[in-house]
Each structure stands twice: as C-alpha cells, then as structure tokens.
User: Which sequence fits this backbone?
C-alpha cells in the first residue's frame, strides 16, 4: 500500500506522464553525461587552472554553486542530483568488465559507514580548507570517482549509494522533506504482478531493477531512493509514477518499508538524522567569526597549537557532547509519558527524525546564502577559463558580477530556517501522538524545546558575519 493509499488521499499527478518532462526525467544517462562533462571541466581547471579559489571553477562551482543547487533541488523537487550522479558512469563501465557477486559485508550494511565518511568530509573540509584549494577539491572529486567504482566493482547491488556515499546519505535524509516521490501507481496491479520487475529487472526492456533493493509496492518514502527511475523503465505494467506528496510526511510514517524497514527500529538511520542536523549547525559555525575566538580559547585551554586536535574537540562537542546532553535530557523527560518503559537511546531513535526538517532548514539557509550572494561569480571565471584554453567564445570576463545583496538574502535564510522549524514541530507532535497517545503533550514538550533551542542557536549563527568562502565578495 502506498503512503497516499494508507492515508486515503488521491495519488496525485504523475510527472512521468507529462509530455516533455516525463521523457527528460527518464533519460538518466543524458543527465549523468552532462554532469560527467562538468566534473571533467572542474577537475582539469582545479589541477591546471589558477590556484586562487575565487578564480577557479573547481572551488567556486563545488563549494558555492553545487551545494546550494543541491539543497534547493532537494527542497523543490527531490533527489534529482543522485539521478544525475556522474560517479555512476565510470562505475557502470567498470561493471561491464567485472560482474561482482560478493555481497557487501553484513557489518557494514546500514548507514554507519556513510555517517563516518560524512563526518570525515566535514572534518577534512575544515582542517585542510578545501574551499580554498582548487587542486585539493579536484583531488576529492577524482577520489570520489575512484571510490564509487572500486566499491561497486567488488560488491554486488549498490552498496556505494546505499551505505557509503556521504553525499548520497545527505540526499536521502534531505529528500524526506522533498515534495516528490517515486511510487507504485496502483497497488492492485502490483498485487497481480508475478515478475516484480521493478526489483528484479526486465531483460526484455534491458532495464535493471532497483539497485538499492526497494520493492515499489512496499516502498515507504524517499529513503534510499536515488530517483534513478530504473523501476519505471523495468515495470512491464508502467505502474510506476513520480508524484507529489506532503513534504516530511514519511517522517511521521512508521510503517515497515521495503529495503529500509521501520524507522523507529533503525538506530543507524537515527544516527544519520542526528549527524545531519547537528552537522548543519557545526558546518555553519565554521563559517562565522566567533568560531575563531572559540577555537583560540579551546587551544589555550587544551594547551595545544594543533588545529587537528582543536577541531577534533570542537567536533566532539557539537556532534557528541551537545546531542548527548540535549537529546538524553529530552528522552529522559519524555519517556516518562510513554506507555512502555524504554531505554534512552530507543526514545531518541523514535524522535530523532523529527529534527530533520530543522536540519534541512539550516543547510538550506547556509548553502542558500553562499549560492545567492555568489550567484553569478562563476560567469567571469568560466569566461577566463575558456579564454585561457584558447576558446574566447564566452567573451571578456566581467569580474564585477556577484549575486543578491545580503539584505535580500538574510530574510530568505530566516524564512527557510523558520519553515524547517515549524515542520519539525509538526513532525515531533505526530511522533509524540503515536508514541504516547494518552500523554502526548508531556512526551512532546521536551522535544519541542530541543527543536526551539536548536533553532535559536541557528538564528544566532546566521546573524553573524559569514565568511564569503570561495568568492571575492566581502561580508
Ligand atoms: S513491476 Fe510494476 S506492477 Fe510489478 S510490483 Fe513492481 S511496480 Fe508493481
Ligand atoms: S525505487 Fe529504486 S529503482 Fe526506483 S527510482 Fe528509487 S532507487 Fe531507483
């Protein structure tokens, strides 16, 4: 049963049936090819172009434009960037020569490897100032291609997307608040279907089945869905649709979904949701002026000049100590209202997903700031890169162009944060009602206070002068 059927709503429009859009969406290879071409340009310019971040396409496009467009697309549509993922092309090429049969190790299934890599990327980004180094940014892209191909050359299925890729895990979490979802159109058709081609593949149509193991009639939400639409190509009954839904509704839905299971039973999913949310605050904190005074104070208190150690402690405070205190406290208070006697971590796992919309709001506000204030900065850099390559087709570089003024962008930032907070409060209420039908308010209040406290700290962060990393613009 689809989510819409479960809550008795019209299944909505099918974007795959729209004349031009539908066929464009189903041409995954086209989008992957375009993204691959862009990636090659970025890699080459990063290694061979000027090693000044604002004048290099690699640093500028990756750290200013790509991140902003990624979160904007997730918010406005869905996991389109995974659909167009360029890392999959070399990986698929490698798989033409090697057919991996080994299964991904059981111990590494789930989200823990992706969470570890996600934290590692945040840490190395700060430690090595990746935004300021074109060659290092290009190296990261090359390593990413190599890792995707290596993992999926050795193991069957799509373990890289499902468990390893930190960008993919970020996209999976953020896409829980996306307005679009891939789902089966009619559960009756699925009930009479014997081939289950959406999962197993369709040799007649030369279409593979869902590589992340989602069986359409039992799929709940966007978690683990890369929007690749292999299922739509494979289904012999054309029973797969890309349709609209209420953003965030899956965070309130605790049915057991294909390939994912029950959210409330998945500690690794809760961990991912929490690292996503607190990581958003940490990443924004790294951009504002008070972070330098805080790091200096930390270094003096620790008696060290090692940036790696100071950053390690800062990460420990924001990603371990702060969540332990806030969530442990909220869980201890709210579990008194729950009918069953549950452990603290179990309570955290059940409520953690309610904080995701707030986390999305912080990421969107932060990356949206960089994207909007530096919107056109790629134009002169692309003009100069083309001229340096002997192709002055794009004209004389117009170095003066920038983006929107901070005065315009700040209300947008606060609006995104406010929207995320409101959705979080609604989702938390729904979870509290499910977990404590008799004492909903008592179970809800501690979590609502946590959400409001995180929102207040995000407001403070976003009100600070933010570093204009990767551009010539000044704050
Ligand atoms: S192949 Fe199509 S009809 Fe069959 S189960 Fe999958 S979505 Fe349903
Ligand atoms: S359900 Fe699977 S095959 Fe279908 S779009 Fe999502 S990831 Fe791709």
Assistant:
């Amino acid at each position: 049963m689809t989510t819409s059927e479960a809550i008795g709503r019209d299944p909505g429009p099918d974007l795959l049936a729209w004349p031009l859009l539908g066929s464009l969406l189903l041409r995954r290879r086209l989008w992957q090819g375009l993204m691959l071409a862009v990636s090659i340009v970025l890699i080459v310019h990063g290694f061979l172009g000027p090693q000044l971040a604002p004048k290099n396409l690699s640093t500028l496009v990756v750290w200013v434009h790509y991140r902003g467009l990624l979160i904007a697309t997730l918010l406005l549509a869905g996991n389109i960037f995974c659909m167009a993922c360029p890392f999959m092309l070399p990986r698929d090429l490698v798989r033409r020569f090697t057919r991996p049969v080994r299964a991904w190790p059981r111990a590494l299934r789930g989200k823990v490897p992706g969470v570890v890599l996600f934290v590692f990327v945040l840490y190395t980004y700060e430690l090595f100032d990746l935004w300021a180094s074109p060659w290092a940014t290009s190296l990261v892209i090359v390593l990413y291609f190599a890792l995707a191909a290596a993992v999926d050359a050795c193991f069957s299925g799509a373990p890289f997307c499902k468990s390893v890729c930190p960008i993919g895990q970020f996209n999976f979490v953020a896409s829980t608040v996306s307005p679009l979802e891939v789902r089966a159109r009619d559960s009756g058709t699925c009930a009479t279907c014997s081939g289950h081609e959406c999962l197993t593949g369709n040799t007649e149509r030369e279409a593979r089945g869902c590589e992340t193991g989602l069986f359409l009639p039992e799929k709940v939400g966007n978690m683990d869905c890369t929007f690749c639409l292999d299922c739509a190509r494979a289904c012999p009954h054309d029973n797969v649709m890309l349709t609209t839904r209420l953003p965030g509704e899956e965070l309130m839905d605790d049915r057991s979904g294909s390939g994912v299971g029950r959210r409330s039973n998945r500690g690794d999913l809760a961990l991912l949701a929490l690292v996503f949310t607190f990581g958003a605050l940490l990443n924004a904190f790294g951009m504002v002026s008070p972070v330098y005074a805080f790091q200096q104070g930390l270094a003096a208190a620790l008696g060290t000049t090692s940036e790696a150690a100071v950053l390690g402690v800062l990460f420990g405070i924001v990603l371990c100590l702060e969540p332990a205190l806030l969530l442990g406290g909220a869980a201890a208070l709210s579990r008194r209202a729950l009918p069953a006697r549950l452990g603290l971590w179990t309570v955290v796992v059940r409520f953690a997903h309610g904080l995701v919309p707030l986390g999305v709001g912080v990421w969107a506000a932060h990356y949206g700031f960089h994207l909007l204030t530096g919107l056109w900065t790629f134009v002169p850099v692309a003009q100069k890169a083309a001229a340096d390559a002997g192709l002055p087709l794009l004209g004389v570089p117009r170095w003066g162009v920038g983006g929107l003024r901070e005065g315009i962008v700040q209300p947008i930032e606060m609006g995104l944060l406010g929207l995320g907070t409101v959705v979080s409060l609604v989702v938390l209420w729904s979870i509290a009602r499910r977990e404590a039908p008799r004492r909903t308010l008592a179970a809800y209040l501690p979590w609502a206070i946590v959400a409001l406290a995180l929102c207040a700290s995000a407001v403070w962060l976003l009100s600070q002068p933010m570093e204009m990393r990767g551009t010539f613009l000044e704050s």
Summary: The longest strand covers residues 180-184. The chain is about 60% helix and 0% strand. Strands lie at 180-184, 240-244. The two ends are 51 Å apart (CA to CA).
